[in-house]
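Lecture notes, continued. The same structure-token format from the folding unit now serves as the input rather than the output. Read the line below as a description of shape only.
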């Protein structure tokens, strides 16, 4: 591999890494603030991209309204999903909650093609996806690649700040760790959990829009949600800070696998890395080990 090729791989890895940050935040924040593994994250982000398509392409409204509508609809859908499906089984084994989110993913996977069909669509982009930022060795970031990095960094920093510095954020984490104690102290845990779902799905929606604007809009976008579980677990499901390390690491491994072994090897390479990390660090590189008392 020449230096130019290496620079190109690294540049694309940074963009892919921040895309994984956006989608991985849904995994980490929902788990950290509610204790639930949501396997419908990919379906939520795909749903949001299709909503933006309706607003922008079908109704011919400005793209910013499309983005706003996507965020609002997905956040509301997240709150509704938690309230209607997860809240009634609160306190039940984690397995029941996981199966519930699997069921939700299957339902949304069926609903999306019923509404929008199965033919790939082109979401009307506000600007062309041209070379925007020139890097050394002829590498570059495209318009939407740069936007993905900026939005990913802002969402990442914003959520860390919210969870650490804002009272509601600290209450969310307290309610997730000790729900019974939190309710006894007067915290409205159902409202906090609903807010956690809404907040977590906002960056995932941006991730879906990034893919839709830079390539095409299709039902296969939902796969991105499942792929993003790897960087979330590698970094630590309860570690927002660890997510960015996991995301960039996975992105580099994936890009190198595609370059040297072909596209069919990318998933095998990423999940091999996941297995290796879990063998030595079951809670991820930066996750907190659970202490069991006997």
């Amino acid at each position: 591999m020449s230096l130019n090729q290496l620079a190109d791989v690294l540049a694309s890895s940074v963009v892919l890494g921040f895309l994984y940050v956006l989608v991985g935040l849904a995994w980490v924040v929902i788990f950290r603030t509610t204790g639930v593994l949501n396997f419908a994250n990919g379906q939520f982000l795909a749903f949001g991209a299709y909503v933006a398509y309706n607003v922008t392409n079908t109704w011919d409204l400005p793209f910013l309204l499309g983005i706003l509508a996507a965020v609002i609809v997905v956040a509301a859908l997240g709150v509704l999903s938690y309230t209607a499906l997860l809240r009634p089984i609160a306190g039940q084994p984690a397995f029941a909650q996981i199966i519930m989110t699997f069921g939700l993913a299957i339902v949304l996977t069926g609903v999306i093609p019923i509404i929008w069909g199965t033919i790939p669509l082109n979401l009307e982009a506000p600007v062309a996806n041209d070379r925007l930022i020139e890097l050394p060795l002829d590498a570059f970031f495209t318009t939407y690649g740069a936007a993905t990095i900026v939005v990913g960094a802002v969402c990442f920093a914003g959520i860390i700040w919210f969870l650490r510095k804002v009272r509601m954020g600290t209450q969310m984490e307290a309610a997730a760790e000790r729900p019974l104690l939190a309710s006894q102290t007067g915290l409205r845990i159902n409202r906090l959990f609903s807010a956690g779902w809404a907040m977590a799905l906002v960056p995932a929606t941006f991730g879906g829009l990034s893919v839709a604007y830079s390539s095409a809009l299709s039902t296969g976008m939902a796969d991105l949600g499942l792929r993003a579980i790897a960087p979330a677990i590698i970094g630590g499901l309860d570690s927002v800070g660890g997510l960015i390390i996991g995301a960039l690491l996975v992105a580099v491994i994936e890009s190198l696998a595609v370059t040297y072994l072909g596209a069919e090897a990318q998933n095998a390479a990423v999940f091999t890395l996941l297995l290796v990390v879990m063998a030595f660090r079951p809670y991820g590189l930066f996750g907190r080990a659970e202490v069991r008392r006997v």
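Point for the exam: The mean pLDDT is 91.
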